[in-house]
Design goal:
Largest sheet: none
Strand content: under 5%
Keywords: Membrane, Transmembrane, Transmembrane helix
Number of helices: 3
Length: about 100
């Protein structure tokens, strides 16, 4: 689905290149965090403190990966929009002034 035909403002994201489409998916970090939370429940219910502690580490690692992957995705999108918006406009040297004096 392309945003270019509809004139949507974020249409620059529809121009995906091989450089922009490769990257980590934040769902990976969320899945690891949820696995850790599940293991925490199992370890806590069974009274297995070592399993609970390990699962806490897994959940925190998953949360850190999620935040990292979201940040990387945002940086890639900003770079893609910046490259799409670098085309010189005809008004690039004209200063914007308010004419309602």
């Amino acid at each position: 689905m392309s945003n270019e035909a509809g004139g949507v403002q974020g249409g620059g994201l529809s121009r995906v290149t091989s450089e922009n489409d490769a990257g980590p998916d934040p769902v990976i970090g969320a899945g690891i965090a949820l696995l850790g939370i599940f293991l925490m429940g199992v370890g806590g219910a069974a009274g297995a403190h070592y399993l609970f502690n390990f699962a806490t580490l897994v959940a925190v690692l998953g949360a850190v990966l999620f935040v990292l992957f979201v940040a990387l995705t945002a940086l890639k999108q900003r770079r893609a929009l910046g490259a799409a918006g670098r085309a010189p406009s005809p008004d690039s040297g004209v200063e914007q002034r308010d004419t309602r004096d």
